[in-house]
Amino acid sequence: MPTSSVFFTNSIPYVDFPRTVTQKTVPIGGISVDMAAIRKHKLSIEWSTVLDERPYNMLISFGSMVRSMDMPIEWRNGLLEAIKSEPNVTFIWKYENDELEWAQGVKNIHFSRWVPQTALLNDDRLSAFMTHGGLGSTNELAHLGKAALMIPVFADQNRNARMLERHGGVKVIEKYELADKHKIRSAIQSILHDRQYKEKAERLAHLLINQPMKPKEQVVKYTEFVARFGPFPRMDSHGRKLSFVERHLLDVYSVIGLSYLIASSFVFYVAKFVFNRIPVKFVKKD
C-alpha cells in the first residue's frame, strides 16, 4: 500500500475540507454520480402525481443503515408535529414498515418503503431533502443542487454534513433536536423558504458539473499513466524512512525539555545563592 504509485480517494476537492495529502493522492469523489443517466431517468406517473399535490415537497430519507422505523419515539413525534404545521408541503418519507398508526390522519405525508432518490433530487418540483448525511447522499446532493436539512447520526455523517454546510446550501441540526418540534419546524421553514440555501446549493452543483477534470477521466488517465511509466518510488513519502525518534520528534522534545531544565536549574541556584546571603536573626522570647 505505501509503495502504490497512486492513491484514489473518495473526496471532491471543491467540496471537501482543505487538507495535507501526498503527491500520489488523486481525488475522485463523485465518480458514482452519473449525471447523464440521472438526467435521462424520468419519474413514474405515481411519483409525479405525488409531487403535483402541493406547492412544496421535501424528501425524508435516512439511508439503508439508519432506518426511520428505529427512530426513538420522541424524535419521531417531534418531526411529526413539525410536519403537521406545514400543510402546504408534501413530505415523502422513506419508512421501512407499514405500522403507521402513529401518523394516522396526517394527510401531507407520503410513506414509502423505497424511493427513487436520485430521480426525485433531479426533479425541480422537489424543494428540499432531509438526510442523515451518508457519503453517497452527500455526493448526490452536492451534484444535484438541492437545499437540505442534514441530521447526522453516526460515523462520518457529521463531517459530511459540516462539509456541505460551509458552502451554504444546507442547514445542520443535531439528531436529538428532532424531539424539539419548534426547532425542527424552524429548520424546515428556513430550508424551504429562504432562497439563499437553494441558490448556494445550485451554485455548488454548477461548479461540480463544470470542474476541469471529471472523476472518471482522472481514473482512466492516471491508471494509463501509471501502467506506462510507473512505479514511482521517488514519490514515496520521506516519512516512511524516519526512525522512531525522528517520527515522534523525540530529538526536538529532548532539546526543548533540556532548555527548560537548564533554565529552571539556573533560577533555582540563583535564588538559593541570594537567600543564603540574606542574614536571618532569631529572637528568643522569654
From TrEMBL:
Catalytic activity reported: glucuronate acceptor + UDP-alpha-D-glucuronate = acceptor beta-D-glucuronoside + UDP + H(+)
Record's GO cellular component terms: membrane
Protein's recorded name: glucuronosyltransferase
Signal peptide residue numbers: none
Broad class of where this protein is predominantly found: membrane
CDD domains, per the entry: GT1_Gtf-like
Entry membrane topology: Single-pass membrane protein
Enzyme Commission number, as recorded: 2.4.1.17
Pfam families: UDPGT (PF00201)
Enzyme class (EC, first level): transferase
Entry similarity comment: Belongs to the UDP-glycosyltransferase family.
Gene3D superfamilies: Glycogen Phosphorylase B
